[in-house]
Amino acid sequence: MVNLVSNFWWIPLYPFIGSLLIAILRRGGAVIGPAAILAAFLHGLVVYSSPRGGALDHTLYQWMPGIAFRLVADDLSLLMVLIITGVGFLIHVYSIGYMDKEPGFWRYFAYLNFFVFFMLLLVLASNLIVLYAGWEGVGLASYLLIGFHHDRPTVNRNANKAFLYNRAGDAGFLIGTLILLTAAGTTEFTAINQLPGSPLMLVAALLLALAATGKSAQLPLFVWLPDAMVGPTPVSALIHAATMVTAGIYLFARMAPFLAANPDAGLVIAVIGATTALIAATIALVEHDIKRILAYSTISQLGLMFLAAGLGATQAAIFHVATHAFFKALLFLCSGNIIHALKGEQDIRYMGGLRDKMPWTFRLMVLGGLSLAGFPGLAGFFSKDAILIAATQSPILLAVGFLVSFITAAYVSRMLWAVFFGVYNREAHEAHGTMLHPLWPLAIGSAIAGYFGPHQEGAWPIMIASALVSIAGLYLGRQIRLPELLKAFFARKWFINDAYEVILVKTTASRGSSTLNWIDQNIIDLLPRATAFFTSTASLISGWFDSSVVDGLVKTTASAFSVASYPLRLAQTGRTHNYALVIVITVAISFGWYWLQ
Amino acid sequence: MSFTPITTGHYLVLSAALLLIGTVGLLMRRNVIIMLMSIELILNAVNINLVAFSRHWQHVTGQVFAIFVITVAVAEAAVGLGILIALFRNRGTVLSDEIDLLKW
Amino acid sequence: MDAALFYIFAVITLAGAFATVTLRNPIHCAISLIGSLLGIAGLFLLQAAEFLFAVQILLYVGGVMVLFLFVIMLIHLEEAAKLRQYSRQWPVAVAALLAVFIEIATFLNAGFPGLPPSPAPRLIAPGNTERIADSLFYVYALPFEAASLLLLIAIVGAVWMAKKKEVAE
Fold this sequence. Notes:
The complex is a heterotrimer. Chain B is about 75% helix and about 0% strand. By secondary structure, chain B is an all-alpha fold. Chain B starts with 7 loop residues before the first helix and ends in a 13-residue tail after the last helix. The mean pLDDT of chain B is about 85. Chain C contains 7 helices and no strands. Chain C has helices at about 1-20, 25-45, 50-75, 80, 90-110, 130-140, 140-160. Classes of the chains: A mainly alpha, B mainly alpha, C mainly alpha. Chains in contact: A-B, A-C, B-C.
């Protein structure tokens, strides 16, 4: 039989071929899509569970000295593979029901497979260049999927926004990569992770961190994620909860030794994470759109992962990535059920009392929400605690962590109460089939995944404290009445979006447009304008030439004639008398001539 | 009193003088009648010249030529006067300055 | 003797000619011209051109000048006589004629030695008229006929020109 272990590099190929097939056939997305992901998952499972004897790697193509198209399979990458393909598969199946009767059905699945291919490439990469390829690819796929309903008004703008903010970070990625390439001669992680720290390396690390903030929606580049919710809900579940946004944390995990060698970078990352987590949590508290609540929640949770990674607790960060994938995907898909049942309603103020009409969705969503809130015993509790334990290095960060946990529980409670309890006033029906059954594995994961994580030592104080915070938040979440000022402040997203609007968008648009205008006119249009200028000048000259020289010649000739003829004309007196004189004069002259001979 | 003998040269000088006087009259007078008379003078100057040379060469051809010149002069006078009369009838003037229809 | 006669006739000729071109009244000019012509006739006679002397008086004086006088009397020239007589171009004319005069004088002075001496004069010959007749009717018969033709044309032309044009226009 084929050696699946050593041929692990096939894993990305399944979705790639799937995507290609769907695109060529324009149909069969419902079958080919999930099948490809399932194949990848199974293959990954085989490789993961087989004895490997260290990391496997496979070089497909040596591009340049120092840069090769190489994939590596170690515990970290394989774990990510399983998360991606596992959750991905479930979401693919869910999409069959959710996207039913949707025009462009095949396009959706083609894009989705396309995305998974790049994500797998990203996590299996053994060097920064291949990772960058995956990085860019998922950005592209995200753009395509967010903009799936491209006939709706704001969709294209939001898709562009997502892509551009990603791109901004990617600039940092590229420069950082190039710095590392010149420093180490190669971009292989094994080599980079051995580089000693230095100011230049710090710069490179920060640049890569900037890229991570773009991809993982942290400060300063997070504003795209809430707007990305205009995409189909399964897309939000997969890309903007479970996988793509975790790419930043994965990068930190891969380069953990490098970050350790530049501790200041780690500090910056941690601070960014903590700050973002706090801001996002407060915004989630006042949001009304259910998907946006979950989006800000994702940003907040990613912030916690940044916090862990920055402090060097790579295992804790990846642990939380895994658990978060479960419960966040679950929450998104449940919300998808609700939206689908309410025929597109997403505002929680118009929901209520769905507990009876949608009992399973209710239970599943409560489970996911409690896990998110860190209810003791559930997966989220354990992974969050791991992060909090790592945060004990800094009291401030610890305090922020607890605060974030509290607010998280609060907004979860608020959301659940608003959606499922209270007055029932809408027509709704329970989800069924492909929109229900994929949720079970996610629920199970949300519940018990915590027990498979890294073992915590001496964590009891933290665990008790976080448990209390969680329960308090859940309870008070219903009761909290924020001062109007705070509410408004949070609702305006701390004015960050507005600040960006003014600083970046308007300035770039106006300055940019005037700069671009200048560039366009003077550089790009230089050739046509120069040509036009020369043509007009040439025509001017030739016109001048024609009117003054050519016509002048004609006129001069004519006037020469008339001028010359004037004195001659005077001789035509018409008087024979004068003519006789002329004859005599002529005689005199001829005589004189003859005489002089 | 004895003058120098008259040679042919004397006649030639006379002829030249008459020629010039006639030409002067032709060019300087405005009255067309007098211009015609000046032309007669010129022709006569030529005649003198011819006869002088006829005598010099002892040949009669010069005198025959002079007869022809007289003939032509007569014809020309007649026609010229006829023109003059026609001119006077049409223009009312015999002054050459005023007869300038051919002026540009 | 010859010389004296020559000078007398020469003076008459030149004086008459000068008067012709100078006088104001055309009738006076015509009379002066007659005098000049008579002087020329005398010169002819001095050179033993008897026939020509007769022809000159008959034709020129008796024919042409009479014609002139008739025409002068036909045209009322009293008004013209009161006007300016000399053309505006007279300075130029004088200059040109002076030039011509100098040239001719120079010619005469310089270019004469080439003239061979005349043979002995044979004044009494078959006779001047006979000789002219001989020459005219034998040698120059054709020009003679042409001249008569010319006279015919001149007559016709003159008559027609001077005719009043009743049926013209």
